[in-house]
Amino acid sequence: MAPIVLRRSLLRRSVLLSAGATLLAPRAALQASPARLTPTPGQTEGPYYPVAFPADSDADLVRVTGQAAQATGQVAHIQGRILNRRGEPVAGALVEIWQCDANGIYDHPNAPGGQRRDRSFQGYGRNAADAAGRYGFRTLRPVPYSGRTPHIHFKIAVAGVGRLTTQMYVAGEPQNARDPVLAAIRDRTQRDSVIVALTTADDVELGAVKGTFDIVLAL
Q1: How wide is the angle at C-alpha 55 spanned by C-alphas 48 and 210, nearest 5°?
Q2: Prediction pTM value
Q3: Domain range spanning residue 198?
Q4: pLDDT given at position 63
């Protein structure tokens, strides 16, 4: 009987080893092919992308060269990283933003209420991502205007590759639930990725808020 018991024992051990190999295979495959990030959704450029860039087009939209006072509204420090789908930084990507002022008016000839526009607000800025893919802007907390929830327009351009136009929204804004542009993003993960929580930034600038908006390019 001993040889039979031995054969059964060896057979059982072989089955267990085979099962173990099967369980380990997906883990090894996962390590070899890490999960990819979800790309940031593209959105409309809207009707108010600048027809001419302001002379002052730096990353500080709150202070305009030649204006004695800074823009009206709550200062917002927005920063983040430009990444590819593998989570790697996209160094040198050009990041542009534009938005309305605290009165809900864009710096654009077709924008209604242009005579009330805050000349101390730059309205547009650009910044190049550094070697770690990081960018940053000093701007205003966005405000709503007719038909739209508060948002900031973003355009990211990578030389020789392409560009992405999207928008950043503010978490907790009641208009988010009925904004048609935001609602057009059907994928919940992608929609959540463009909604940013703004928190107090007294450690950076008294009375300001700050938020982090990481942008993932489909690269």
Answers
A1: 65
A2: 0.84
A3: 75-216
A4: 96
